[in-house]
C-alpha cells in the first residue's frame, strides 16, 4: 500500500501589504466591517480565516498609529516641561 499523497494546497494567507499604507481611520473602519462580517457568520472556513487574518493585521495597524500618537504626545509633554523648567 502506498502512502497517501497530501493533496491540500499550502496554507497561504491573504495579501495584507495594502494595510501598511492605511491611515488610522481607514484601518479602523475596515476593521469594524471585517468584525461585522465575522460575527454575521455564514462564510466558508477559508474566507473566515482570511477575514480573521486581515482583521488581526488591521488591528495591528491601528495599534501602530495609536502607539505613534502616544509617543508624540509624550514627547510634546516633555518639551513643554523642559521649557517650563527653563523659564
Structure write-up:
By secondary structure, this protein is mainly alpha-helical. The protein has 2 helices and no strands. It has helices spanning 24-40, 45-86. Helix 1 (24-40) runs antiparallel to helix 2 (45-86). The longest helix has 42 residues, at 45-86. It is elongated. The N and C termini lie far apart (87 Å). The mean pLDDT is 89.
Alpha-beta classification: mainly alpha
- Please provide the count of β strands: 0
**Helicity level, as a percent range?**
55-70%
- Alpha-carbon distance between the two ends: 87 Å
What fraction of the residues are assigned to beta strands by DSSP? Answer: under 5%
What would the principal axes of the Cα set say about the shape?
A: elongated
* Low confidence ranges: none
Summarize the biggest pleated sheet.
Answer: none
Mean pLDDT: 89
Oligomer, anyone? single chain
Number of helices: 2
Radius of gyration computed on alpha carbons: 21 Å
Please sum up the structure shown:
This protein is mostly helical. The protein is built from two helices and no strands.
Amino acid at each position: 500500500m502506498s502512502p497517501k499523497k497530501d493533496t491540500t494546497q499550502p496554507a497561504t494567507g491573504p495579501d495584507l501589504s495594502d494595510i501598511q499604507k492605511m491611515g488610522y481611520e481607514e484601518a479602523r473602519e475596515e476593521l469594524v466591517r471585517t468584525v461585522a462580517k465575522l460575527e454575521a457568520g455564514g462564510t466558508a472556513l477559508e474566507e473566515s480565516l482570511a477575514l480573521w487574518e486581515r482583521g488581526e493585521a488591521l488591528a495591528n495597524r491601528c495599534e501602530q498609529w495609536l502607539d505613534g500618537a502616544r509617543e508624540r504626545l509624550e514627547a510634546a509633554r516633555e518639551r513643554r516641561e523642559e521649557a517650563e523648567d527653563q523659564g
